[in-house]
Amino acid sequence: MSCLAVAQPVCAARTSSAAASRQASSLAAPRLVAARHNALLAGSSSKALVQRRSSVVKVVAAAAAAAPAVEQCQYETMVVLRPTMPDEERDQELAKFQAFLQKLGASQLSDLVRGRQRLAYPIKRFTEGIYVLYTYTATPNAGQAVQKYLSTPTAGAELNILRHMTFRV
């Protein structure tokens, strides 16, 4: 019984020493890194540190100048027009929307008139609509501006536009 009593503290001592060594090794690495960093700082002059910092600032400034000023996003806008519109009125409506997109600064603007197609459900008593797909590249806030524009009565949303949706591609 005395052997067991002696064996338990030895095993506990081994476990605690192993845990202590693991803990010491995990704490030693950050201490070594901090010691090396402090030694580098103490060994170098303050003038050298200022030169290093200024060179980093110059590199960051050069990278910012090389990057484009405004990020451009690709958008698709699908517009469903009233099927009873005459061709002239439809062309005027599409030209008005294209002018709005160009005013927003949209580039690579293309439109595809997909023609009359059957609607999945009646909208304002119409069972067909004229589908027009616009693809363009613009600033990130252009999608919200387009949705707001098409929702207003000035765009003819009450009379000519049955549905519209803008997607960021």
TrEMBL record:
<dbReference type="GO" id="GO:0005840">
    <property type="term" value="C:ribosome"/>
</dbReference>
<dbReference type="GO" id="GO:0070181">
    <property type="term" value="F:small ribosomal subunit rRNA binding"/>
</dbReference>
<dbReference type="GO" id="GO:0003735">
    <property type="term" value="F:structural constituent of ribosome"/>
</dbReference>
<comment type="similarity">
    <text>Belongs to the bacterial ribosomal protein bS6 family.</text>
</comment>
<dbReference type="Pfam" id="PF01250">
    <property type="entry name" value="Ribosomal_S6"/>
</dbReference>
<protein>
    <recommendedName>
        <fullName>Plastid ribosomal protein S6</fullName>
    </recommendedName>
</protein>
<dbReference type="GO" id="GO:0006412">
    <property type="term" value="P:translation"/>
</dbReference>
<dbReference type="InterPro" id="IPR020814">
    <property type="entry name" value="Ribosomal_S6_plastid/chlpt"/>
</dbReference>
<dbReference type="InterPro" id="IPR000529">
    <property type="entry name" value="Ribosomal_bS6"/>
</dbReference>
<dbReference type="InterPro" id="IPR035980">
    <property type="entry name" value="Ribosomal_bS6_sf"/>
</dbReference>
<dbReference type="InterPro" id="IPR014717">
    <property type="entry name" value="Transl_elong_EF1B/ribsomal_bS6"/>
</dbReference>
